[in-house]
Design brief:
Number of helices: 8
Distance between the termini: 18 Å
Number of domains: 5
Radius of gyration: 30 Å
Shape: globular
Number of strands: 48
Structural class: mainly beta
Strand order of the largest sheet: 13-12-18-10-37
C-alpha cells in the first residue's frame, strides 16, 4: 500500500474513426517503486510488478499489460506499430511467465462489438528481455491504423439466410428418439407404433412421414461459423410405402450421425481421419414428423466412368474414456475445463489397448495419434508400442507443491507403423520416474488401410487416395445381391448409389476430385441398429417465432412454476417484456434435441439480431463441469449447461463462464474475448425448494415494505491482505467505481490489512475484521463484495 503509483498521461479524447484512418497515441507509464508479492496456494511468494490500470493475461499472470479501447464506426482491421519507446532497466526476477516476453514492445489489436457498436482495442506488453536482465517501458508512442471492412449483406448463418421464423416443430405430430452411435438404423412397425407411440400408425400415409435431425455433432463455438438453423430434414427410405399404408412388414431406413463422429483433417503431407466426441450429450436426437405432403426420400446416384480403381479404403478407430476431470481429481480445486481423461497410470504403469480392423492391408503404413498427461515434479516420458514401432514423448515436469500451478502437463504422440495382422495391440508405458508421478491416458487414435472386402452387416468406407483423382471406381469384394451402398458424404442427404455386381464384386464410379466421399455398404436383409433412447410424442413449439422480448428466462422444466412466478413479477413490477423458454425446447430447435451450451448462445443471438433492445437473459438452474455425469454422482446437477474453458489443467485459468452466452458478435465465441452484448445472470437452485426460496427473496426485496430499509443504500467491500495488498487495491477500485456510477450508495469497507492479525492454533485470524463483517451483514447490504483467497 505504501508504493507510489502515478497515473497514465492521457493525450487524446474519444472520437469516432471513419473509413481509413490512422492516429497516434502516447502513453506514459510510471511504475510502482517495488514489486508486490503474491502469495500462492502453497505459501510461496511470487513477485509481480504493476502500474495503475494494468491487467494480467491468463497465460502470464505476473506480467502486467496495458490495454486501451476506442470507438470506431464499424467492423475494421486494426494494426499498430511502434513509433518510439523509452525504456529503463529494472530488477525483475526470472519466472516461467517470461515465455511471453520478446526483445521489443509486445503489441496486439482486436475489434470488439457491443450490439451495433464497434470498438478497437490495443494491448501493450511493456516489458522486454535485455541481455541477461529486463527493461520496462516508461513511455511509448504508437501509430494505430483502422481500415473499415465491408458490411455483410445478411447475418452469417448456414446457406446464407437469416434465422427462420417458423420451426419445423411448430406444426404436425412430432416424435423424438435418440441414437448412441453412427450407422444404419431401422424403425419397424412395432417400434413406431408401440415404442415411439404413433398410435394411429395404421391410418397414416407413410409417404407423409418425415425425419428431422442434425446428428450428434457439437455446434461450432465461433458465431461466424456455419451451422444449421432449426432442424434439417433427412432423406430416408421407407420400404413398403407405395401402397399408402404402413403395414406390419414396412420399415424406415436412415443413416444417423452419433455423438462420436468422423472428421476429416486434411493435410498436404499427412491427412487423417479423426474422431470427435460430443462433450455434452451421450446421444444424438432425431424427430419423426407426420404431416400432409411428401417427405424427403433417398434418391438414386448414377455411377460415373472412372480410370482410377481402388480396392482398399481408410478406416479409423479411437479409444477414449471419459472418467476423470483432473481439476476434480485435485483435492485443492474444483472440477473445471472441457477435457476428460481415461485410465489412471500410478500403481499400474503399463496397459494394453486392442483394435481390430478386418482385412487390414499387411505392411501398409498406418498412423497412430494419442495424448497422455502426466503429473510429476521431475521430467517424465510416455511410450506407445505398436506392431514393432515405438513412439515416445517427454512430458514436462509440473510444480506439484504449488496449488496455483498447472496440475499436469500434456504430451501428444504421433507416429506411423506397419500392421501385420487385423488385430492391433497398442502398449502404453509410463515409466516410474518418481514415487509420486502419475499419469492419465486421454485417447489413442489409429488410421489403417483395409482391403475393400465386405465385412459384417454394414461397413463404412472412404479412400483418401482418391481425393486427387477426378473420379474413382470402387470395387467391393465378397458382396452379394443383397448389398446396397449409400453415399453418406452429406449424412442429411444420402444417395442410393447405383452399382454393378459381377462375380462377387460390387463396383461403382464416383466423382472424387477435391472431396472425400464417404459410403456405407449394408446387407438390406441383415441386422440394423435401433434407437436406444425414446422420448415419444412432444408438443409443438416455435421459439424461432419470438421477435422482441427484453428479457428471456431460460429454465429447466423442474423449476417451471418458480420461473413463471419470477417472469410475472418482472412483467408487472419492472415493466419488462419477458419470455419464458424451456431449455429442452431450446435444444430441440437449436441443437437437434441434444444438450449444447452453444445452442443457448445461438438462440440469444437470434433475439438480438431481431431486436436491439433485447437486454437480459436469466438462466434458471444450476450447472456443472460434468454435463454427461461422467462421475456417476447423484450430487451432480446440470440443469442449465455452463460453458467451460478448453484449459483443463490450471486451477486459475480453467473455469466455467456464463459470459459465453453474452458474446454474440460474429467474431466472438469460445475464446471468451470481446464485449458482452447482453446481461447474463444465473440463479442456481438445485431443488424446487431452493428455487422457491430464491424467487420469494427476489420478489420480497422489491415489494415487501418491511424490507425497504436503508440496506438498499449500503454496499460492503471486503478485501484479503494477500498478494501484496493487490486485493485491497482491487476492492478499493470497485468501491470508487460504484460511487461514481451510483452516488447514492453508502460504501462500507473491511480491509484485512487495517485490522490486527492474531496467530492461533488454527492459523492466522482477524477477529475484529470478522466482527465488522458480521455487523455489516446483520445490518443488511444490497451488495457484499469479497476479493481474495
Amino acid at each position: 500500500m505504501k508504493n507510489q503509483i502515478l497515473l497514465f498521461v492521457l493525450l487524446f479524447s474519444s472520437f469516432l474513426l471513419n473509413a481509413q484512418n490512422s492516429f497516434t497515441i502516447t502513453r506514459e507509464l510510471r511504475w510502482a517503486n517495488e514489486p508486490s508479492l503474491w502469495t500462492l496456494l502453497n505459501g510461496d511468494k511470487q513477485e509481480v510488478w504493476k502500474f495503475e490500470g494494468c491487467s494480467y493475461p491468463d497465460e502470464a499472470r505476473s506480467i502486467p499489460v496495458f490495454s486501451e479501447r476506442f470507438p470506431i464506426s464499424g467492423n475494421a482491421k486494426i494494426s499498430a506499430e511502434v513509433v518510439s519507446v523509452q525504456w529503463e532497466a529494472f530488477s525483475k526476477k526470472k519466472s516461467t511467465d517470461d515465455a511471453v516476453l520478446a526483445n521489443e514492445l509486445g503489441l496486439s489489436t482486436l475489434v470488439e462489438q457491443e450490439k451495433k457498436l464497434f470498438y478497437g482495442r490495443v494491448k501493450v506488453l511493456p516489458i522486454r528481455k535485455a541481455g541477461s536482465g529486463y527493461e520496462r517501458a516508461v513511455s511509448f508512442t504508437l501509430n494505430i491504423r483502422v481500415e473499415l471492412l465491408p458490411v455483410p449483406e445478411t447475418p452469417v448463418t448456414e446457406r446464407g439466410g437469416p434465422f427462420t421464423f417458423n420451426s419445423v416443430l411448430s406444426t404436425g405430430e412430432i416424435y423424438k428418439f435418440g441414437v448412441s452411435e453412427s450407422g444404419m438404423y431401422k424403425l419397424d412397425y412395432n417400434y413406431l407404433k408401440n415404442t415411439l407411440g404413433i398410435s394411429n400408425l395404421d391410418n397414416i400415409d407413410p409417404r407423409t412421414i418425415r425425419l428431422y435431425g442434425n446428428g450428434g455433432k457439437m455446434l461450432p463455438e465461433t458465431n461466424g461459423d456455419d451451422r444449421p438453423d432449426d432442424l434439417l430434414e433427412n432423406a430416408i427410405q421407407v420400404v413398403g410405402e407405395n401402397d399408402g399404408k404402413f403395414d406390419q412388414g414396412d420399415y424406415i431406413l436412415f443413416y444417423a450421425v452419433g455423438p462420436r463422429y468422423m472428421e476429416y483433417s486434411p493435410s498436404s503431407t499427412d491427412p487423417e481421419l479423426r474422431t470427435k466426441v460430443n462433450l455434452y450429450d451421450r446421444d444424438a436426437w432425431y424427430f419423426i414428423k407426420v404431416e400432409g405432403g411428401s417427405g424427403l426420400r433417398i434418391a438414386n446416384q448414377a455411377s460415373v466412368p472412372a480410370t482410377y480403381v481402388t480396392e482398399e479404403f481408410d478406416d479409423y478407430g479411437r479409444i477414449e474414456d471419459e472418467k476423470t476431470n483432473l481439476l476434480n481429481f485435485n483435492s485443492s480445486s474444483q472440477g473445471s475445463g472441457k477435457r476428460w481423461f481415461g485410465d489412471y497410470f500410478y500403481q499400474t504403469r503399463s496397459r494394453s489397448y486392442q483394435f481390430n480392423f478386418p482385412n487390414a492391408v499387411s505392411g501398409s503404413t498406418a498412423r497412430i495419434r494419442g495424448e497422455f498427461v502426466g503429473r510429476s515434479d521431475v521430467g517424465q516420458s510416455v511410450r506407445f508400442e505398436v506392431s514393432g514401432a515405438t513412439i515416445s514423448r517427454n512430458i514436462p515436469s509440473v510444480n506439484t507443491a504449488n496449488g496455483d500451478a498447472p496440475f499436469a502437463a500434456n504430451a501428444t504422440l504421433v507416429g506411423t507403423f506397419n500392421p501385420a495382422a487385423d488385430a492391433i495391440t497398442v502398449e502404453v508405458n509410463y515409466p516410474n520416474v518418481s514415487a509420486q508421478s502419475e499419469g492419465w491416458l486421454d485417447y489413442i487414435e489409429v488410421n489403417v488401410r483395409r482391403k475393400l472386402v465386405m465385412s459384417g452387416s454394414s461397413m463404412g468406407f472412404r479412400d483418401l487416395n482418391t481425393i486427387n483423382e477426378p473420379s474413382a471406381l470402387f470395387r467391393l469384394s465378397s458382396a452379394g445381391s443383397n448389398i446396397k451402398v449409400w453415399d453418406i458424404s452429406d449424412p442429411q442427404v444420402p444417395y442410393l448409389q447405383e452399382t454393378t455386381l459381377s462375380g462377387g464384386n460390387l463396383e461403382f464410379g464416383a466423382t472424387t476430385q477435391g472431396v472425400l466421399r464417404n459410403f456405407i455398404a449394408f446387407n438390406e436383409s441383415g441386422d440394423f441398429l435401433a434407437p436406444e433412447q425414446t422420448v415419444g410424442k412432444i408438443g409443438n413449439q416455435n421459439l424461432h417465432g419470438l421477435q422482441d422480448p427484453e428479457q428471456v428466462i431460460i429454465y429447466h422444466p423442474e423449476f417451471e412454476a418458480q420461473a413463471t412466478r419470477l417472469a410475472e413479477h418482472r412483467r408487472s413490477y419492472s415493466g419488462l417484456k419477458v419470455e419464458m423458454v424451456n431449455v429442452d425446447q431450446l435444444f430441440n430447435e437449436f441443437s437437434s434435441g441434444g444438450k449444447d451450451p452453444t445452442a443457448m448462445r445461438d438462440f440469444l443471438r437470434m433475439l438480438l439480431e431481431r431486436n436491439n433492445d433485447f437486454e437480459y437473459c436469466l438462466l434458471f438452474g444450476d450447472g456443472s463441469f460434468d454435463p454427461k455425469n461422467n462421475t456417476n454422482s447423484t450430487e451432480n446437477k446440470d440443469f442449465i449447461p455452463v460453458f467451460e474453458t478448453q484449459e483443463s489443467f490450471s486451477p486459475i485459468n480453467a473455469f466455467p463462464s456464463d459470459d459465453y452466452f453474452g458474446l454474440l458478435s460474429p467474431n466472438e465465441g469460445g475464446a471468451l474475448t470481446g464485449a458482452l452484448d447482453i446481461s447474463v445472470g444465473r440463479l442456481v437452485p438445485r431443488s424446487v425448494s431452493e428455487a422457491e426460496a430464491l424467487v420469494n427473496k427476489i420478489i420480497a426485496y422489491d415489494v415487501d415494505p418491511a424490507l425497504l430499509g436503508d440496506w438498499h443504500l449500503r454496499a460492503l467491500f471486503i478485501a484479503d491482505d494477500e498478494d501484496g495488498n493487490a486485493h485491497i487495491k482491487q476492492a478499493d477500485k470497485l468501491s470508487i467505481a460504484n460511487s461514481q456510477a451510483e452516488n447514492w450508495f453508502n460504501n462500507e469497507k473491511v480491509y484485512f490489512d487495517a485490522y490486527q492479525q492474531i496467530a492461533t492454533s488454527a492459523g492466522q485470524r482477524f477477529p475484529d475484521a470478522k466482527s465488522a463483517i458480521n455487523s455489516n451483514i446483520f445490518k443488511g447490504n444490497l451488495v457484499t463484495q469479497y476479493i481474495g483467497h
